[in-house]
């Protein structure tokens, strides 16, 4: 069993212990998974490394939503509102994108805390690289309305890392406070193909 398979098993146990059900099923290729606060469904056709990272990140996102649902909902509502043509004021858009990036960073910090707590510190660099790239890809989407093709974007990202043109800052672990899972509107985890 690989480290990523072991991580998935440990994350599934942690989730169950905290009232969150994890499963996998067939989904369209552009959908990595979805979650609603009480359950996470992963695309069974994705590779084990991607599923492990998406599971950790989904748990981090659920934590973020559970800690301040109203604020997170307002942040996503504002992000959608400013993308409408009549609202595409650049300062307002950049402020909404900045709030989104802060939320995604916090959720990744929770995910990294889980990796460390569960004994997978060695996977933090891979997770950090994957989700730093994801945040940048989503920033492109929110600015332009067009999501980059993930596999191409991630390949170029990794080329930049290998060539020393890009420095990946590791996410720092963020302690996980006591929380109670709550149902939220289903959040889809998409990858433009």
Task: Report on this structure.
There is one protein chain. With 193 residues, the chain is α+β, with helices and mostly antiparallel strands. The chain has one domain (3-68, 104-190). Helices cover 58% and strands 10% of the residues. Strands 1-3-2-4 form a 4-stranded mixed beta sheet, with helices on one face. Helix 2 (48-67) packs across helix 3, helix 2 (48-67) crosses helix 4 (90-117) and helix 5 (124-144) packs across helix 6. It is globular.
Blueprint of the fold:
Blueprint: H1 3-17, E1 21-25, E2 31-35, E3 39-43, H2 48-67, H3 69-82, H4 90-117, H5 124-144, H6 150-162, E4 187-190
Parallel strand pairs: 1-3
Antiparallel strand pairs: 2-3, 2-4
- Residue stretches low in confidence (pLDDT < 50, at least 5 long) are none
The strands making up the biggest β-sheet line up spatially as 1-3-2-4
Spell the H/E element sequence.
HEEEHHHHHE
Number of strands: 4
Fraction of residues in β-strands: 5-15%
General form: globular
Give the number of domains: 1
Given the helix and strand composition, which structural class is it?
Answer: alpha+beta
Main sheet attributes: strand count, strand direction, barrel closure? 4 strands, mixed
Give the rounded overall mean pLDDT: 95
User: Nearest-angstrom radius of gyration?
Assistant: 16 Å
């Amino acid at each position: 069993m690989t480290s990523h398979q072991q991580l998935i098993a440990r994350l599934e146990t942690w989730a169950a212990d905290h009232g969150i059900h994890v499963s996998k099923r067939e989904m369209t290729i552009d959908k990595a998974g979805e979650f609603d606060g009480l359950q996470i469904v992963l695309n069974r056709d994705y590779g084990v490394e991607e599923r492990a990272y998406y599971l950790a990140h989904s748990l981090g996102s659920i934590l973020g939503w559970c800690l301040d649902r109203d604020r997170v909902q307002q942040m996503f509502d504002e992000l959608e509102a400013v993308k409408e043509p009549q609202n595409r004021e650049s300062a307002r858009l950049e402020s909404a994108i900045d709030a989104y990036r802060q939320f995604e960073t916090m959720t990744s910090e929770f995910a990294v805390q889980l990796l460390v707590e569960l004994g997978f510190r060695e996977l933090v660099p891979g997770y950090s690289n994957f989700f730093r790239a994801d945040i940048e890809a989503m920033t492109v989407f929110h600015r332009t309305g067009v999501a980059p093709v993930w596999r191409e974007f991630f390949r170029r990202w990794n080329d930049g890392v290998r060539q020393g043109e890009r420095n990946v800052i590791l996410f720092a672990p963020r302690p996980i406070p006591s929380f109670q899972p709550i149902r939220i509107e289903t959040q889809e985890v998409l990858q433009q193909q």
